[in-house]
Structures are given as structure tokens and as C-alpha cells.
Records
---
Amino acid sequence: MEHFILTTMIILGIILVISIMMQPSKQQDALSALSGGGSDLFQTQKSRGFESVMKHATAIMGVIWLLLGLLLMILQK
């Protein structure tokens, strides 16, 4: 059982990293943050479409990964 959970965590961790990397950038480039391009930094925009799906999928996978880690810790005691 522990090997199955550990394998699932490794696979889910890889998928989680890929989903984080696939999310669109909130900032166009690093220079715009220093040159005053961050004036709309505090304006909230609702994510839509692909961005929304990736945001929710990443959050759900992160919670599942955390719960699997806790379960693995309990089983190893």
C-alpha cells in the first residue's frame, strides 16, 4: 500500500510541476515590474478559460498530493 501511495505521489508531483509551468504568466516580463509596468498589479481580473481550468486543476492536485503525503506518513508509523 505504501509503495502505491508513494508512486502515486511521484506521478502526481510530476504532473503538478507540469501544470504549474503551463499556467500563463501574470506579468509580461521582469523589466515591467521595475519600470512602472506594475501599475495594474493590484487590479483583480477573473481568470477565464484555460487559465481558470489550470488554476483549479493545480489547486486540486496540490491538495490531493498533500493528503497522500499525510496518509503515507500515518501508514509508516
Note: The mean pLDDT is 84.
---
Amino acid sequence: MFERYTETAKRVIFFARYEASQFGTSEILPEHLLLGILREDKTLTRRILGESPVVEAIRKRIESEIPRGEKTLTSVDLPVSLASKRILAYAAEEAERLNHKQIAAEHMLAGILREKKTLAAKILTEHGITVERLREEAKSREEAARPAAPPPSSSPITPPATARPLRQSAAPSDLVLRDLTELAHAGQLTPLIGRERELERVIQILSRRTRRNPVLIGEPGAGKGAIVEGLAHRIASGAVPPGLVDRKLVAIDVAALLPPRRGQELPGSDFATILFIERLFDIGAAGYSWGVLEAMRVLEPMLARGGLQVIATGTPAGYRELMDKAA
């Protein structure tokens, strides 16, 4: 359903679902969509509404007029209300009208305004927002996003060299670390849609006092990495239990587990950091001469001290190989 949506628009849907769960409503209402836009697309919000006091006033208005129920788990798959479905259909129409390939947040705002009887539309109208203004905003954004054509006399641009994968000789300073929570804050990760149950299970395991290092097993392309990125979004937005608030989720290259590093601290191996090691059980298949048992021995001392948490992924074949070797 959301294939044509921009990454920002997908995150709007994610946050709208989160708002609905916090309100304790049984479905995602137009007002939740508006709150999702205000939360996610701050650039658009500032351009059409101004500074944060206005945004906060809108939130308080919605909170005062939309009945609240008991909060629901974010793993509950809330349906989209009929009014919200019409808004999303209007958003698609707005994108088609402007010959835009993707549906963006400004198209969604125009869709909200077209669903005139909702509180969300009333609030936007009271602040002087019109469909025509949003169409102009969408045009401006689309034009700004187009790469400028180089002048005829300019020299061809040489593309940057592709980064080479890490080898066994990589020094500790060369190890690839990616702060996924920071990337989520910056809007560079795709929101998780439709895998909330698995994500809640990962959060539950991470929140334990013991046996708190989740392992995601599945075939390539099954969405294991998407679940981890969904966790990064949840941590970045603060929608996690207290024990996970302000934690960092850092993806680390498996080269960090090279045997020569045994006995040394891994980067980010403090309490505030959760390490994500992709394909931990498939090290042999990745071309390294050392195996998963050697990698596990590098992690073992830090896991035993309780100062490190790890999320690992792998394939069923890699996991079976580990079990066979450990037997």
C-alpha cells in the first residue's frame, strides 16, 4: 500500500500509528496523521506553520478534543479509519495531479484539508493553510529535489570510489561502525511497517535482566535487518521501555570479531550501546578463514560481564552449523 510513499511519508504513517496507540483509539484517525506529519516532517511544518509554539498548540488542541482510551501496545495492528483512507486516496490524487511519482507529506496534508469535516482539516484551515498553498509547496520541493543539469562546458564528474570491504588485516580504527539511532533521527532509515509483533519481542528480550541478547534467524531477504532498523526508530523516538531510553544501537562489521582482537574491547562495548552484528552465524560463507565459534569467543568475556548487549542475525544454515560445531 505504501510503495509509492517517500521515506518521510512512510515515517509519518509509522508515527501516526504510534500516536493512535498512545491515544488508545481503535483506529488511525486523520488527527493522528496530522500529528505524524508534525512530528516527522519538521521542515514542512516550519514552512507552513512557523515555530514550535504553534505546533504544540495544535497537539494540545487535538489532545483536548479527541477522546483518550487506555494505551495499546504498538504491536497491535491498528486499522486506518474510513476518513483516513479517503485522505490517503486524496494524497495519491494530489501526487497524480502534479505528475509526482511519489506521495509526500505535503500531499497528505492536502488530503487532510480535502476531508473537510475532520478536526484535523478544521485546525489547518484556522491556521490559513489551503490546498493551493500545499500544491505550491509540493511543486517547490519536487523542483528543489531534482539534480541540476551541468553546464555544457563542465567537466564530467567522476563518481566516488566504492568503499572496499574490510579484510582480516583491518586495524581497529578502520572498523565500520554505523549508529543506527542517529541515522533514524536523521531520517535515513526506512520505518518498519507490518512487523510490529517481532519488534515487540526483540524489545522484550532486550529488557530482560538475563538472557537478553536476541538472535534473529531467517533466510536472506526475510526482513531481519528491517526489524533492527525499526528498533532504531523506536529508540530514536523514545517509544521504548525506560531501560532502553537513550541507548544507542550501533551496527558493527563482523571484522571487529577477528581473532587478533581477542581480549580487546569492541568499539561501543559500553552499557549505553547495543551492538548489531549482521550475519554473525554466516561468517564462513562471507569468505573469512575463521569461524563463528572464534567470533563467539571474542564476545563471550564482555557478555559474561553483563556490560554488553548484542543483536545478531543469521540464516538457518549458519545457525545449524554453529549448533553442530558446539555439540
Note: The domain at 172-326 is CATH 3.40.50.300 (Rossmann fold).
